[in-house]
User: What shape does this take?
Amino acid sequence: MIFLHNRWNFYNPVSLYVGRGCRQELTKHLHGQKILIVATKRGHKQFEEDEFLMPIVDNNFVTWMNSVQENPDLDDLQYEINRLSGLLFDAVLAFGGGSALDTAKVINVALTSECANKSLRELIQFSEFQKNLRPSPLYTIPTTSGTGSEVTPFATVWDHKNKKKLSLAGPAVWAKVAFVDAALTDSLPLGSTISTGLDAINQAAESIWNNNANGITLGYATRALILGFTALPLLASGQGGQRERDQMAEASLLAGLAISHTRTALCHSISYPLTAHFAIPHGLACAFTMPAVLRHNLQAEDGRFAEVALALTGSRDLDGLVESFDRLNESLQVVSRVKEKIPSLDALLALKAEMFTPGRADNNLALVENLQDILKSSWAAK
Ligand SMILES: [Fe+2]
Assistant: This one.
């Protein structure tokens, strides 16, 4: 049994509605208001065709920002902020995957009057500035089960020109209410289901092998792993249905709650240049090194991995835990999907210096001095 003796706190102010059909509750929050809805073009269509969400459009004064791109770009976001500048909204509604939710978070903060003379790059660089901001209430409705962005105080922004991943983080970024309704994920294509699902699983794992872990985050993350390891392989093999979608939605939410406190760790840190240079989907890029990073972190075992092993495999045996992570990646063909996008092992190793992201890699439980072994064994895995 693990007892963490360090002092800790936990804070997450996002009010939650969870379960199939819970998105109906949104109509009780938004009526007669000026709202900005942030989505992709596909998300815009999905929203307007949804019987439970359509009343939002009918009963409010809606402005759409439906140009969300995957991995939102700093310059594109700045363009949208400039376009919407001066408009006042009673609320902002984020509808979509992690990119839509992160875009909405960024725009909502940037549109506050205090930020009128600041560029987005300045906002990201000087997060202290956020303390006195009063953004509009943000309502988040994820349509994928992956990032957990609906309950985290950070948003990922990409500087594609310089191949850098940035993050807007701080108290102004929190949503007011999140609606986690797995029915919205039923039509998600298989590739996105796998990639986003792997993100949820990896975020749970990274929250466990994390220096900021505590009793709450370990509980959330362990349950997220149980759900994810059960449901995602079934969805990937075509044997899953609504129950597995519901399980992945809960896994994603719980992992999001866990990393809202711990943040992520080494796999995420390694993943950012893989996405920036080779356009590898985020979840796949994170899962690529997951078994190797687990093996590395076992050297810092303090009881937490045995607890996770017991929850996942029914035994405290750590070899069994490693095997279950190997099997997951193998069954979802993670390594082959990633290697399709990277020209060679040398091309992978050439990015080593970019893979230590401060604020991510240093959360990792076991110290990492050299990534070479982790990258090589990930490359050689099945
Ligand atoms: Fe992630």
Observations:
- DSSP finds 17 helices and eight strands in the chain.
- Residues 15-183 form a domain with the Rossmann fold fold (CATH 3.40.50.1970).
- Strands lie at 15-18, 34-38, 61-65, 91-96, 138-142, 154-159, 164-169, 177-180.
